Amino acid sequence: MQVTMIDENKYAETMTDVVLPALEQCCEEGWFDPSAAERSAGIEPLSGIMDTGGRSGQLHYLCYDSAKFDAIREQGATATFRGAIVISHGFTEFAEKYDELVWYFLLAGYSVCVLEHRGHGKSARDVDNRCMVWIDDWQRYVADLAGFAETIGQQYAAGMPLNLFCHSMGGGIGAAVLERYPTLFDKAVLSAPMIAPATGMPLGVARVLVGALCGLGFGKKRVFGQSGFTPEFSMEGNEGASEARERWYFKLRCENSEYQTYCAAFEWVRQALKLNRAILNPSACAEVETPVLLFQSGRDIWVLNKPQNHFVQLVKDGGGEANIVRFPESRHEIFSMPNSTYKPYLEKILGFYDDPMIACAAY
Hints:
One of its GO terms (molecular function) is hydrolase activity. The chain has helices at 11-26, 35-40, 66-72, 99-107, 138-157, 169-180, 203-218, 243-255, 266-279, 282-285, 305-317, 339-354, 356-361, and strands spanning 27-32, 59-64, 83-88, 110-115, 132-133, 162-167, 187-191, 263-264, 292-297, 322-327. It is α/β, with parallel strands linked by helices. It has a single domain, classed as Alpha/Beta hydrolase fold, catalytic domain (Rossmann fold).
């Protein structure tokens, strides 16, 4: 599927003058109460220490209606409704970071639902430090995303396919959802998923070390060497990415204190490692029925590639359908790369979602 990309030389101007006004006309902001989904999964709900407007413990989301978008008659819009896509974002991210991708999905005929995971964006948090992400149990992330997709996501799909797009941490959560809720999604894209985080040491050593630190009371302390958010833009660590896109994301962080999550608590790392072990359980992988397309970044410094390969192979061994598309020169966020990389990446995603033969293979 051919896509017309936003000109990087006019990126901020196009986002401000074209994309954001259109998104505002078809956007619904809401709050999802995850307590029922968490109780169904055997998890006791948390109220959250940050109570905004009486929404204690609730999760913030943004949803975009394809029909309302089509009524705007944006150039390039397909005007053919294809279903809905639920987006599961990455570590320290937020819904508005995905505005450009949402725009492309809307042009292709999909409604889009973006849930902000617990501890991110405007959703409930459980630590005072706004820059730090903490979670008590990785299974809470999974129950929340599944509950959101089963209710809000299905509502926007309106009987048409419900697809999943995940990135990084959101990809690890998404992989676990596919294992535990095998009929929930029609197709799933895992973009540089956190099947295993890059810890700078062997995963077994990291498990022992982080487990010991949490046992000593460091669970809600910031991981050594990580810092809070500072309003100083830099491309360090993102060399080769689109500077226009990186500057736009950074501007959003600077303008919204809720978007300034920037570091991990030790307990978050411990739960990420527990999630890794659960995802790669062969019997869990054998439960996956949803066709999976996994995108891998060759220059990834945040998640490990070999566990992604292992996950795909285990899904195949269990009778599922899963394939890898590798971008050897890409950084972790493929959707933050220049158009020369982003365009073929996006076209492969849309082609995967649109392919009726792959849909048939799921049943």
